[in-house]
Each structure stands twice: as structure tokens, then as C-alpha cells.
Amino acid sequence: MGTVPRVIDLDIEGLRGAAGIGVAGNFAGHLEQAGEAADFVNVVAESATAPKGLFPWYMPGRDGYLGVFPLSTATLTWPGDDDAVDLQIEPEVGAVCRVDYDDAGRVVAIAPQAVAAFNDCSIRVAGAPKISEKKNWAPASKGIAARGFAVSDLSPGGALATLRIACFLRRAGRVHDYGIDSPARGYSYGGATLTDWIIERLANQEGSPGTPLEPVGQYLHEAGCPERVVIGIGATRYTAFGEATFLMPGDESIVIVYDEDVLSPAAVCAAVTSGDEMGVGGASVLVQRVTRAGSPPG
């Protein structure tokens, strides 16, 4: 048995001042399942298993959709009035980190403070020019659990060593496995390798018409160098059901990051099946009901 990470409450409203970024392609096979691998054909990565790049999903104070605070602990907003929208859960570890800058406004250090269940929910739009265009369409278009784990690193041998990521869809009272229950230590990049790579990409990643990437480091500078950032460190693979099934109004999206020294995959599945997922210990639990904009909660 390892050391059980400490479960803490997160100040979600306090994250309005934090920037939101994501790591694309940090879990082998996800981009292919999501139909997005072709978007990165012109992106040169460090290796075949390395992440493909960073993308923004929230920048405080920015004009346009990136300036809309998208995080919710309970709901997912259905995009507009169009019923023909392919909306998909992206189950991830979300990391709340402190960020240090140099005098020129470049990020020089990233210090993890907490991790939590995170839903980098996405609209599947073939050929969208930028990743961010599929990531933030309204308030409550993203999700983070109200409780997470206190951490000081993102290492597969440290804070992530015993954490696992599970994902389910509850529809019409039935629970379906949506994501493959996966160890957080299975990320391609973790620990200092991941944070050093993010710092390098913030300094050097540029936007261009030929790639879906944007100059995220420049966006942070333009946002006034936020002291904190929420990083979605990568979505896991889908089950066959999850790969083929898109969300509908009335569904419940469930992402759980849990400690395998406290809970087994079977125990997590049983809790969700019985509707008791919010009561399990040793876990960060995010349950979001898909609702149309303007609909009453519940």
C-alpha cells in the first residue's frame, strides 16, 4: 500500500483567474479514436509517443469564446439549438498549478498544487482550424470536480503512482463504461518531463494556418500572466461504446480519478451503477448533467 493522497476541496470560483490549457495526444491512441489524428499531420512531435502540442480552452479577460469561464462541477451546456452535435466526454486528470514567469513574461516554472477529475468535453468537428474552437462554447462546457487530491508533482512514480481514471455515461437510468479505466501513470509524459515540455512549448509553440495549434504562451502574456493554470494533461482511450456514442441532453457524464490503494475498478463501477459515486472515499468525482442553455437544473 502506498501513501494515500490527501483529498481536498477546490475553490472553483477562484479558478476564474486561472488560465486553462490542455495537452494534446498524451495518452496513446486517444487522438485516433477521437478522429483528430489527421489534424496533426503537419505537427512534428519529439517522438511517436510524445504529445502533439498545447491548446488553450480559457484565458481570463480575453475577448471571444476563450474569455468565457467554462468550468462547472455539475452541468454540461448543450451547444446551441442544434440536435445534430457530436459532443464527447474527454476523461482526464486536471492539474491546478502555480506558474512563475521571468521579467519578459515567459513561463519558467510550473508547480502542481492539486489534481482532480476533469472533463475536457469536446465537439467533434472535422477540419476545425484550431483545437480551441471545439473546446469552449459556453459557460459549463468543461468540468472539474469540486474535490481533488493535494499534490506537489505529476510524476508517474509520485503523485500519479496510484491514481486511476474512470469514465461512465448514465443514460435513462442505465450506466455504461465510456472510457477505459486507466492508470494515470500511463500518460506518455508525466512529472518533470511533462512540465519541462509544457514550459518549452509555451516558449516556442507558434500558431500557423497549417496546424491546429496556437501561441499559448503569448496568450498567457496577453492575459496578464495568471498566477495559476489548470492543465488537462490528456484524455484516456474510449471503450467501444464511448468511441461510438455521443452525449445527449439528459445524460450524465461521470469522470472519477481514484486511488487504487483505496478502491478497485470493480468497486468504482459498482458505486456508479448504484448511484452512490459521490459517496466513495479516496476519489475525485465529477458528475455533470447535460442540459440545454436556459434549462432549469436537475
Structure description:
The protein contains 5 helices and 16 strands. It has helices spanning 30-33, 191-204, 216-222, 240-244, 265-273, and strands spanning 7-9, 19-24, 53-58, 71-72, 75-78, 87-88, 91-101, 107-119, 122-123, 142-144, 147-150, 163-171, 174-183, 228-235, 252-259, 283-292. The relative contact order is 0.24. It has one domain (7-292): Alpha-Beta Complex (Fumarylacetoacetate hydrolase, domain 2), CATH 3.90.850. With 298 residues, the chain is mostly beta strands. Strands 1, 2, 3, 4, 7, 8, 10, 11 and 14 form a 9-stranded mixed β-sheet that branches. A 5-stranded mixed β-sheet has the order 5-16-15-12-13.
Task: Spell out the blueprint of helices and strands.
Layout lengths: L6 E3 L9 E6 L5 H4 L19 E6 L12 E2 L2 E4 L8 E2 L2 E11 L5 E13 L2 E2 L18 E3 L2 E4 L12 E9 L2 E10 L7 H14 L11 H7 L5 E8 L4 H5 L7 E8 L5 H9 L9 E10 L6
Parallel strand pairs: 2-14, 4-10, 5-16
Antiparallel strand pairs: 1-11, 2-3, 6-9, 7-8, 7-14, 8-10, 8-11, 12-13, 12-15, 15-16
> How many strands, what sense, and barrel or not for the largest sheet?
9 strands, mixed
Helical segment count: 5
Q: Indicate the low-confidence ranges by residue numbers.
A: none
- CATH C-level: Alpha Beta
Order of helices and strands: EEHEEEEEEEEEEEHHEHEHE
The radius of gyration is 18 Å
> Per CATH, what is the topology?
Fumarylacetoacetate hydrolase, domain 2
Key features?
globular; 9-stranded mixed β-sheet; 13% helix; Fumarylacetoacetate hydrolase, domain 2; mainly beta
